[in-house]
Amino acid sequence: MNYFVAQLFVILLAFVITNICAEKKIVCYVGTWAVYRPGRGRFDIDHIDPFLCTHLVYAFFGINIDGSIRIIDPYLDLEENWGRGHIKRFNALKSVNPSLKTLAAVGGWNEGSRKFSAVAANPDLRRRFISDSVEFCRIHSFDGIDLDWEYPAQRDGDANIDMVNHAVWLEEIRHEFDRYGLILSAAVASAEFSASVSYIIPRVSAALHFINVMTYDMHGAWEDHCGLNAPLYAGPADITEVQKQMNVNASIHYWLSSGAPKEKLILGIPLYGRSFTLANAANSFVGAPVNGPGTAGPYSREPGVMGYNEFCEKLQTEQWAIHSSAEQFGLYAVQNNQWLGFDDVTTVKYKMDYVLQMELGGAMVWSLESDDFLGVCHSQSNILINTIYSAMNNGLTPPTTAATTSTTGWVPSECTGDGLFPDPDSCKKYYVCSNGHIFEFSCPDGLLFDQQNQICNWPEMVDCENNQI
């Protein structure tokens, strides 16, 4: 590739990234461990609709003390040693929807803060992480990294230096990622009392393409009283300054007032609820005393947490009293001594109205496997994600197949297996087989389909028989 072409390629990549920043985003995390869940809770790559989200985030990968990225579950993620090849299947969704972007989430709650703190404090380890990230994205076909350090200067991190080191690290990552057209995002703490000790918000905002604000987990079984997981506004029981910060509106206003551009803020919407066991079943108001977490759901199997799919199935066979916390624009459900604060279609619509009114960059969900992805409770599968999509797209529903172009040439009559296949009559065209469905695509002008590497490539890199363009 000559110098002129290389420079043009860099310019095109920058243009693509600029457009990525400008569009409204629907960022969807996927908890990949859900493939091990029982029964109707088992969530595999095949359950992902590649048209519902603009960005899919594969959660999670770890970080090693030497700054390299760690694959946590090699059997699930890789194909080697008879593995399940989840990463490859995940990124193959872009063959069905070429507009889709995929990110690798590094970190998460279970990964802690200590190793992130150590890497961020050492210039050599930061460089190791950056180079490893670029190579990781290249090898596995990710479009970028979502850095989920939970949280700088907190937990087992370093309260004295993490805030500055985090900002420096992000700036260095972004500088290198721009050379390769890679996306850099991060999941961040939402409430002021937490975010204010972790982030230099103007610098963090400048370094990131977009910011996934985790506006949930406002209340949970770690407290001695019940509360909504993700209330839109403060309620009557919120008396102290910290309590008044524990809602979506206060969190977003804090980030905005601290220097974050509104178009970069992606509002987090939970597809799960937080549950409690009431100390006294007769006292079930918001803020009532509790004795610990609620009963675990049948799929997530974690006390204190219940996916929307778990709860909506319970409603088909069990009697729960549903209450509205009007001031907070939230819902909670009570059955005997069990109390659950949750989101449904109505509250998701409230939050999408908020996203649009505040002119934020979009919405993020944690996480796809907790929606009614099988359509057990509703006539439409993925009802909560579809609600977000509809709000973001003026009431439209997502396409069910990839857009195709009319042709009188060869089209495969049937799929013998999933994958990408060349058109024998044109090196520009290729076909995607997915779950028995056939989709036709054409490479962008100036590129040809490279069967060996399964991408659109420069003509000089492609063996095109008879020069059939």
Topology (SSEs and partners):
Blueprint: H1 3-22, E1 25-31, E2 55-63, E3 69-70, H2 74-77, H3 86-91, H4 93-96, E4 101-107, H5 114-120, H6 123-140, E5 144-148, H7 162-180, E6 183-189, H8 192-198, H9 201-207, E7 210-214, H10 241-245, H11 248-257, E8 265-270, E9 272-278, E10 290-293, E11 305-307, H12 308-317, E12 321-325, E13 330-335, E14 338-342, H13 345-357, E15 362-366, H14 383-392, E16 419-423, E17 426-434, E18 437-442, E19 448-450, E20 455-457
Parallel strand pairs: 1-2, 1-15, 2-4, 4-5, 5-6, 6-7, 7-8, 8-15
Antiparallel strand pairs: 2-3, 9-10, 9-11, 9-14, 12-13, 13-14, 16-17, 17-18, 19-20
Helix pairs in contact: 6-7, 7-9, 13-14
Walk me through what this model shows.
There is one protein chain. With 469 residues, the protein is an alpha/beta fold. The protein folds into two domains: 25-270 and 343-393, Glycosidases (TIM Barrel, Alpha-Beta Barrel), CATH 3.20.20.80; 405-468, Antimicrobial Protein, Tachycitin, Chain A (Beta Complex). The protein has 14 helices and 20 strands. The chain has helices spanning 3-22, 74-77, 86-91, 93-96, 114-120, 123-140, 162-180, 192-198, 201-207, 241-245, 248-257, 308-317, 345-357, 383-392; strands at residues 25-31, 55-63, 69-70, 101-107, 144-148, 183-189, 210-214, 265-270, 272-278, 290-293, 305-307, 321-325, 330-335, 338-342, 362-366, 419-423, 426-434, 437-442, 448-450, 455-457. The strands form four sheets. It has an eight-stranded parallel beta barrel with strand order 1-2-4-5-6-7-8-15, surrounded by six helices. Strands 9, 10, 11, 12, 13 and 14 form a six-stranded antiparallel beta sheet that branches.
